Amino acid sequence: MKKIDRRNFLKGGLAGGAALAATGKATKAEASGSFGGYPNSMGVLVDFTKCVGCRTCEAACNKEQGLPAPDKPFTDKSVFDEIHHGKRHRRTTEKAFTVVNRYDIPGRAEGPIYRKFQCNHCQEPACLTSCFVNAYTKTPEGAVIYNSKVCVGCRTCMIACPFYVPAYAYSSATNPIVRKCIMCYDTRLKFGRPPACVEACPQEVMVFGRRKDLIKMGHERIKEHPDKYVDHIYGENEVGGTSWLYLSDVPFDQVGFDTHLGNEPIISYVKDFLAMVPIVLTVWPALFTGFHLLATRKEEANTKENESKGRGV
Amino acid sequence: MGGKTKKLLRVAVVLAAWGLAPHAALAADGPGVVELGSLSNLFEPVTFNHTMHTDVAKSCAECHHHTLGDAPIDKTCARCHRANQPADSVACRECHPANRFAADYLAKLEANPQLYHTGKPGLKGVYHRKCLGCHRTMDGPTGCEDCHKMTEKGEAFYRTGKFAPPPAKHEAGEE
């Protein structure tokens, strides 16, 4: 009979590990197929060159979503001067699912540029994939909605979101939940109507339509005015694509966009690891139990032998 | 009754003048002062002095594109509309839909893939873009209430005027 010593044990372990790595790889290949979003989903194309910073979208959002009264009237432009900790502009909060910020661009003939900001409704949302209670849903219409009834307030989505969108209801002591823009899904989008902010905008900064058509429209605008626009639609490919798309006449990093997010959906960075988890949980216990049994077999046999010897003598 | 007849007569005269006048003269005459109120809701209608604006504008095409028969300003438009005939109607609302994102309008756009100008902005969008766009370069009025007074509904919507949040909250709300 083959003796199990440390050398053989390690050899077996390596073989097992290699087999495991092979299975892991196969699973990874299978899991890496991207979802890429629903083909006919709706979206919004935002053209910052047309925004005049009137904050009507903020007021419309507040009314449509039944949000609490703002700290300042929506006609108050002093909010544009609010620079928060870390030199950052205003961000979405539990009371404001969309905000407009002003960016002073030296040498821009039209003066400062305004940027409307809200949930980008990613094609493959990081918030959704990070949520362990499955509170989030990407609807076929394109909205990323959430079920606040199952939200446990763990705030993982807030960390996962590459755009820092989900906000926390810190004001609620009894039921603090995560809150964000849902593209007016309940009241408008599911009935084929545009989000309230889109309809309210006096400048028609935003165009509501099928995402695939909006991408074409965006590229047409760039083509017709090559000297005006930056030749890029933010959101076409970023983090796997977003339902909200943006056109600008100043480089996107100057209007508060993160231009280093890459085009891979956030889930891709953790897919390999997540695919390994079930394998590790199912295969490892059996594998190592086997190792343990093999390793202790001789010992057990010895003990038995000793016992019988002891009895026999 | 008498007033009504008079009104009808006046409308008839205006219409006759509109139809008879050569289109070059139309611009100079124009509609005088117009009240733009079809979209009025959060703000009162705009009293638009057309005559004053025709005096300031270099060409009718600045606002009316090609519908008056002038060459369009935008080079992209000029490629097709350079030698256009004057259109039957030159009102903004004839081409720019008031409800740009209504489901039936979007369905109409989608039903015909050959349709051109599908990205044509809605009426509210073009009013503001045309007016503000020019006012910003010509030093015209650019504040919302410079052109139309806010209605009470508007004050409630923007949480301003008598619907404004109490001032004490301003400081408390700061981060």
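qc> The longest strand of chain B covers residues 33-36.
qc> done
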